[in-house]
Amino acid sequence: MIKITNQKEFLAQLQQELKHLSSAECDDILNDYRSHFAEGLANGRSEADIIAGLGDPSVIAKELLANQYIEQWQKKKSFKNLWYVLSVNASLGLVNIGVSLPVLMGMLITTLLSIGFGILAVLGTVFALASLSQQLFGFPQLNAYHLNTSGIGPVLIDTTPIGPRPPNIDIKGKDNQEFKLERGSDGSVTIYTQKDGETFTIEKKADGSIGKIYGQNNQGESIHISDIRKPGFWSQLCIGLFTAAIGLFGFWLTRRTMNRLLSFWKKHLQWTQTTRKQFMP
Question: So where does this one cross the membrane (predicted)?
Fold first, then answer.
């Protein structure tokens, strides 16, 4: 790194580091530091002494850019401005690890949480609207697919009625493997699988709810769970609204935390700039 010993070199490097700012903003900053040099020289200090007190112009520029990007983010919360804040904070974290790095970690965590809560709010809203739409218009049809655990055929089985009388399915394999899908006249569906004397059966009622699930091993021992019903309309609607509320609250809380972190960091940067000018060696 080239050692800077005079005002001209200092201002030239500072201007180079501030190239991402507008010309007007850059000129204001440079004029402020020119005034600071003039004041120091008038008090009998040398340019090298003033530069030693101010520090590295690249660090000064990063702090100024960080402050500028924070203001941009507070005015317009976009991913572009957020990326600028995070990137300049990351570069400052290598210099001022005591403050900038914790703020960076907090920003990353709150950003990820904000995205997660935002997705949760959207999913909850979609689920609530889907439940409402199904109740009012019968669309979308829920429980139209079931998991095929037989090892034969597709993984997902579409049990949505296709026509007036969809066909049944009966597949037999070696070693007494068998898969059946039977449709009742009332719209119910029964899925039956068998392998080596062990069976598994699941029934879907005409209203879309799960009727019975039971299995039996080759010793004749069975597990039987009956009348497992899907949640009702009000239960589905409440689940969706509650999920959306949790997502919205979490999104608001993480954004509020992020704004507080940025406000704290902005004050710290401003304090650093002021202190550097006032308390030079």
Answer: 82-101, 107-132, 233-253
